[in-house]
Every structure is written in C-alpha cells, then in structure tokens.
Amino acid sequence: MLLWTRERMHPRGKEPAMAIHIVTDSMACLPQGYAQEHGVTVVPLRVSLDGEYFRDGIDITNDEFYRRLVAGAKGGSTQPSPEEFASAYGAILERDPAGDIVSLHVSSRLSGTLNAALTGRNQLETVHVQLVDTWNAGLGIAFPVMRAVELAEAGVPLWQVVAEAEALCLRTHTYFVLDSFTYIERGGRIGKAAAITASVLKIKPILTFTQGVTDVEDRPRTKKVALERLWAIIDKHVQKGIEYIGFQYGTNRAEVEGFQREFTSRYNLPSILAQIEPVLGNQVGPDILGVIISEKKPQ
C-alpha cells in the first residue's frame, strides 16, 4: 500500500533531480553496515523482556535478547512513537529542505509502525514524505528498501522510486518453518487452534504472509518433508527469475547457513544471510528457517 501526499511534475512531465532519502524501521533486518553505508535512517521499534524495554538494535544485541528469551524471559514489543518519526523526518528535512523521503515499513497488519509514521508525518505538515506499506517483515522489508536505495542513488525521479519499491513489495514472498509454535501462538500471530493442531499432529507447516498477515502455505508432517517442499517452492521462484533471495535465522545460524550453502550449490545465485531481529524474533521464536524471495519484474 502506498500513501501519497502529492505529485510534483514539471510541465514536460519530469521531476527535477533532487535528493531522495530512505527511511525504514528496525524490523527490516538490513545487512550489517548497509544503513550506514547508504545513509538509510532506521527508526527502532522497542522490545521488552520481563517488562524492561530496549530499543531494537541499539540497547540490546540480538544474541543477548535470544539468550534471555530462551532462558524464560517474557517478551513483548511496541512500535516507535509518532514523535520519533517526526524527529527522524524533521532532522532529514532540516539538512535538506528541498529533499524528499521515502519511508518503507513493516506490514500494517503486523504492527502499528506505519500508522505511527503517518501520524509523525502529519505532525510536521510536510508533503515531502511518502509512506510505503511493504506487507511484509524482515528481509521482506529490506529488499524493497534496497531497491529504493539503488534507484535513489541512480538519480531516478521520486515517483519511480516509490512505484518500483511498491511493485517489488508485491513480488516479494516470505516462507518460514518453525521448530516450535509456542512463541507465534503466544503473540497471537496465528490462531491458537492452528498452533494446538500443529503441536498435537506433530506437523511442521510452512508459513507465509498473505496480504500482510501470517498464513499457512503447506502442512507437511515432518521437518524433513517441510524442507523438501521448501526447496520445491524455491525452485518454482528460480524458474520465474529471482531479483533477491535471503535466508533468516534466530539462534540456529549453522542450520540456516547450511541451507544457504545448498542453495548456492544448486543455483549459483547470490543470496543474503541475516539474523532475525528481536521484535520479530519475539513473535516467531529462536529456531526458525526463513526464506525471502523477490521475483524479477515480468517481461
């Protein structure tokens, strides 16, 4: 979903060249160092452990968060405040009053982050901020962000940056297999009945996002079969053409790295490996194999 505030066009139908700044939130799981290298502003969500709140990616490391979560700490999270978004946007526009901002965020059906960004933008009463709902999480946010950065750095006009980022969101697919449904059921991201059924029947479903909410892609009975089905899904996307692909893990890096190596061996295509940050990790748990795929634009 794209939230426009304006169109700025010259009489000939072309926008003037000007700086376009990219903003996202900490659920994007951008590769380490990417935000600093490309000047992306990351507004942190907050994660809690036993009632103590931390800024995601700032006040607590991923490893420390997972250590405490596995040890039994009760996790929670909250989105940034509108004032934090207003501050982030205001700082950018103070440095570059003629510039524009494209702000891409976690699915509005998973988090109130996009709504906070909208309220923050409205507090500034600015027409220089465009908001994009990625309908996704994790690398499903990162890939549209990376595309927006690539286009902005190439100097393409604002409307094209936003349109192509939004189009990539619609071509981005997330699949994940969990070892336990405890965390995702506790967080209300999948129905309690579905979690109980999965536990009782000992199935290892492949989960996905459908229109921004958690859904079931397939219901294999064992993890071995789940991974075989996941390979079949990956192969289908590779045949169509892949723009980006990434693999995500919680505490099970060795397992997911092995899966990534197998992907490289099979297809000889580049990929990204990223740990799931604490807010999403709190929702899905520490043992997860995530595959995020952005397909190429149809010819």
Automatic annotation (TrEMBL):
The keyword Ion transport does not apply. Pfam families: DegV. SUPFAM superfamilies: DAK1/DegV-like (SSF82549). Keywords: Lipid-binding. One of its GO terms (molecular function) is lipid binding. It comes from the Bacteria. The keyword Oxidoreductase does not apply. PROSITE patterns: DEGV. This is DegV family protein. It comes from Candidatus Cryosericum septentrionale.
